[in-house]
Amino acid sequence: MKYVRPLSLFHELLKTSAINQGRFLGLDVGDKYVGLAVSDPLNKIASPLSVLLRKKSNIELMATDFQSLISELSLGGFIVGYPFDRQRGAPDAVRVKLFVDDLCKTGKLEGVKFTYWDECFTSKNVELLVKPLDLHPVHAKSIMDKFAAVGILQLVYLWQGYLDYVNRKMKLESAE
């Protein structure tokens, strides 16, 4: 896996032919689960996808799952939620970095480009929306993880998700 700055990742994707342009996979990395969301083929809208169980012992399996998703969904890059509002040494930040490092060490995702995007309050916002639904705790957790990943890719209240930011930025650049 290779880290790319957020706008660079989007620009690189636009340079490829329309047929080969990929979609983005949003990842919300938690202690026990990784919520996944995927963008539409035009990279304008994010939708919830699934939740993967996260254990140190299943990182190889997760990397294989990501390989399958890359080919099935024509993914062009990963947008990994990162807690920029906290200190780098904070447990949440360390957890995300270790997860990405572990994926890299598998060697199964060579050439896959990724960037970090602020996950500020994504889980909390989704929790506030899901709580009144009075769902079974397991079902509610699964929904929260998937939609937190959507929040990383898409607009979350006043904050911009990755897709909204890069699309607005591209519109501004083309107007100049």
TrEMBL record:
Keyword Secreted recorded: no
Molecular function via GO: hydrolase activity; nuclease activity
InterPro entries: RNaseH-like_sf, YqgF, YqgF/RNaseH-like_dom, YqgF/RNaseH-like_dom_sf
Keyword Cytoplasm assigned: yes
Family annotation (CDD domains): YqgF (cd16964)
BP-aspect Gene Ontology terms: rRNA 5'-end processing
Residues annotated as domain YqgF/RNase H-like: 22-126
Keywords from the UniProt entry: Cytoplasm, Hydrolase, Nuclease, Ribosome biogenesis
PANTHER family: POLYNUCLEOTIDYL TRANSFERASE, RIBONUCLEASE H-LIKE SUPERFAMILY PROTEIN (PTHR33317)
Protein's name in the database: Uncharacterized protein LOC105129048 isoform X1
Lineage of origin: Eukaryota, Viridiplantae, Streptophyta, Embryophyta, Tracheophyta
Chain's gene name: LOC105129048
